[in-house]
């Protein structure tokens, strides 16, 4: 189901399932929209009451359902690698050419061995002696690389105090 296409809606809200009249500028007869409703208007109506796609019963239309589908639909490898990513290197933002999945790295290891993985690892300043360690370190480096670099904060040691602690307080 293409999420953003215009669609006819069916009201499934208890008490309104057989509603006839206008809602948000759209005409409904017996709880079904007369014409296809734009994605934006369908989500607006879906935010106020329970509606579903008339042509695909059970497919709920609402902002909450939209967020649920986005969060629960896994991205395939082509979507992951197609997204542009940036990494922070020495305080400068640089584009990372490709992000690799574990499956991608295992295929490289199968075809070209540790030497092939070392080529990929060089992009991430990673090294290891074993294939599994190399794959794990590359994946970890990619995760760290796409996060903004944070500067570690230095903790100052506590200054000694000349005050005498209260009688009931124990000092280390």
Description:
The structure is a single chain. This protein is of the alpha+beta class. The chain has two domains: 64 residues, no CATH class; 69 residues, no CATH class. The protein is 37% helix and 15% strand. It has five helices and seven strands. Helix 4 packs across helix 5. The chain starts with 8 loop residues before the first strand and ends in a 26-residue tail after the last helix.
Strand residue percentage? 5-15%
Instruction: Give average pLDDT, whole number.
Output: 76
The helix content, as a percent range, equals: 25-40%
The poorly predicted ranges are 78-84, 146-152
What is the spatial order of strands in the main beta sheet? 2-3-4
Largest sheet: 3 strands, antiparallel
User: How many distinct folded domains?
Assistant: 2
Structural class: alpha+beta
Alpha-carbon distance between the two ends: 66 Å
Overall form = flat
SSE arrangement, N to C: EEEEHEHHEEHH
Strands, count = 7
Instruction: Work out the helix count.
Output: 5
Rounded to an integer, what's the Rg over CA atoms? 28 Å
């Amino acid at each position: 189901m293409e999420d953003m296409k215009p669609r006819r809606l069916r009201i499934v809200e208890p008490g309104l399932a057989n509603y006839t009249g206008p809602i948000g500028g759209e005409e409904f007869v017996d709880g079904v929209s007369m014409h296809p409703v734009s994605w934006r208007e369908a989500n607006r109506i879906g935010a106020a009451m329970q509606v579903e796609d008339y042509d695909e019963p059970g497919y709920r239309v609402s902002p909450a359902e939209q967020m649920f589908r986005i969060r629960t639909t896994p991205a395939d490898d082509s979507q992951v690698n197609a997204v542009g990513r940036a990494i922070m290197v020495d305080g400068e933002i640089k584009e990372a050419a490709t992000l690799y999945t574990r499956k991608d790295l295992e295929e490289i290891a199968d075809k070209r061995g540790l030497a092939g993985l070392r080529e990929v690892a060089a992009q991430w300043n990673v090294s290891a002696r074993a294939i599994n360690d190399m794959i794990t370190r590359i994946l970890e480096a990619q995760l760290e690389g796409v996060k903004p670099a944070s500067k570690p904060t230095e903790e100052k040691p506590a200054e000694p105090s000349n005050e005498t602690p209260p009688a009931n307080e124990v000092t280390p």
